[in-house]
């Protein structure tokens, strides 16, 4: 079968690779039909991450089930499903507690599309993908939700959701006019695309937050934010912006994190998506004095996917409004290369 391979030098091509073995009793074989880029893919494709190239690319997808193992009961052949980017068994203590990103049945940080660093699970940009724990991992795509709209729910949309949903109710209970501040590409050379901050903004609006501000130095991102009903800010305008009770740090940089913490109000929360930096100086004295809660983590995607799909099914959330480029799956090498090298696309979705 074919699989899209990312190689050093920003090169992408279809390669012939062995078909995965038939699914075991707990597994399923799926065929990806809508695959989305991740905010990390630009850095990943350029070899600017800890994940070594070459690797089989792609980790956000909606797929069609081809075959299931004899013990699988929740999905069937022909069904459309969201495939979480992280591997999880559903039965270990971590999975039972909803911490599916730390499944104890597989090696740490097991996920599709990250090569040796994420384990030998393959990439979503391939003809077939083996899902080792079908009942635990696969989530049925609701009727009326298009695969292209839900492709990024496997990672980035759920990532945006976890920065907002745990805090929105209490935030609005305290102050119905409370602000949310989302920090995106505020550095000179943003290392991440901007879909997670844009998804977070859409989710905040869907959950009733009236005032959502998004800071980014890229004019195209600010224009996109305004089209989504968010209030765009230039980084230079942050100094005049009052601290917010909920700040999302999606900057991907140590300097961006420090700025996000400085802009978190007393008794507020700063939720960080982390980044590629090995360490960062954190102003603990200031956080202590303001009683700020700082939360940095990876997302537990499988736990959150049903909640995100429910928002989509109800018509409250439209992640496809963040998509900037649609392309045919057969053109994946060119489309991904343009996404990585040109840098103007926020979210590219490839469809069959």
Please supply descriptive tags for the structure shown above.
7-stranded mixed β-sheet; Quinone Oxidoreductase, Chain A, domain 1; alpha/beta; single chain; 6-stranded parallel β-sheet; 352 residues; Rossmann fold
What does this structure look like?
It is built from 11 helices and 16 strands. It is α/β, with parallel strands linked by helices and 352 residues long. The chain has 2 domains: 202 residues, Quinone Oxidoreductase, Chain A, domain 1 (Alpha-Beta Complex), CATH 3.90.180.10; 140 residues, 3-Layer(aba) Sandwich (Rossmann fold), CATH 3.40.50. Strands 3, 5, 6, 7, 8, 15 and 16 form a 7-stranded mixed beta sheet that branches. Strands 11-10-9-12-13-14 form a 6-stranded parallel beta sheet, with helices on both faces. The chain is globular, with a radius of gyration of 20 Å. It starts with a strand and ends with a strand. The mean pLDDT is 97.
Largest sheet: 7 strands, mixed
User: Which geometry do the CA atoms define?
Assistant: globular
Report helical residue fraction.
25-40%
Number of strands: 16
Structural class: alpha/beta
| CATH architecture term of the largest domain | Alpha-Beta Complex
Overall number of structural domains = 2
Enumerate how many helices there are, as a single number.
11
The CATH topology of the largest domain corresponds to: Quinone Oxidoreductase, Chain A, domain 1
Give the DSSP E fraction (strand runs of 2 or more residues).
Answer: 15-25%
The helix-strand sequence is: EEEHEEEHEHEHHEHEHEEHEHEHEHE
Oligomer: single chain
């Amino acid at each position: 079968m074919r699989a899209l391979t990312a190689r050093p030098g920003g090169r992408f091509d279809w390669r012939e690779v062995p078909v995965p073995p038939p699914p075991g009793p707990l597994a399923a074989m799926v065929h990806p039909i809508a695959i989305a880029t991740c905010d990390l893919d630009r850095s990943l494709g350029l070899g600017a991450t800890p994940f070594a190239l070459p690797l089989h690319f792609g980790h956000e997808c909606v797929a069609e089930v081809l075959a299931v193992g004899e013990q699988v009961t929740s999905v069937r052949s022909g069904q459309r499903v969201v495939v979480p980017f992280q591997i999880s068994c559903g039965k270990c203590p971590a999975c039972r507690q909803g911490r599916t990103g730390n499944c104890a049945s597989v090696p740490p940080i097991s996920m599709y599309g990250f090569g040796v660093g994420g384990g030998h699970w393959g990439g979503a940009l391939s003809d077939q993908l083996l899902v080792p724990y079908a009942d635990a991992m696969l989530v049925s795509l609701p009727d009326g939700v298009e695969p292209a709209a839900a492709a990024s729910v496997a990672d980035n949309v759920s990532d945006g959701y976890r920065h907002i949903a745990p805090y929105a109710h209490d935030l609005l209970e305290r102050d119905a006019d409370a602000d949310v501040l989302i920090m995106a590409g505020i550095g000179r050379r943003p290392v991440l695309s901007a879909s997670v901050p844009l998804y977070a903004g859409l989710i905040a609006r869907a959950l009733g937050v009236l005032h959502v501000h998004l800071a980014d130095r890229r004019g195209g991102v600010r224009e996109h934010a305004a089209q989504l009903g968010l209030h765009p800010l230039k980084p230079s305008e942050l100094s005049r912006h009052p601290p917010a009770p909920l700040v999302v740090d999606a900057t991907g940089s140590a300097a961006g994190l420090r700025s996000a913490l400085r802009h978190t109000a007393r008794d507020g929360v700063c939720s960080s998506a982390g980044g590629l930096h090995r360490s960062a100086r954190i102003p603990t004295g200031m956080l202590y004095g303001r009683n700020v809660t700082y939360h940095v983590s990876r997302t537990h995607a499988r736990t959150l996917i049903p909640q995100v799909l429910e928002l989509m099914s109800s018509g409250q959330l439209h992640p496809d409004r963040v998509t900037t480029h649609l392309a045919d799956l057969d053109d994946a090498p060119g489309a991904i290369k343009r996404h990585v090298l040109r840098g103007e696309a926020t979210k590219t979705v490839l469809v069959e």
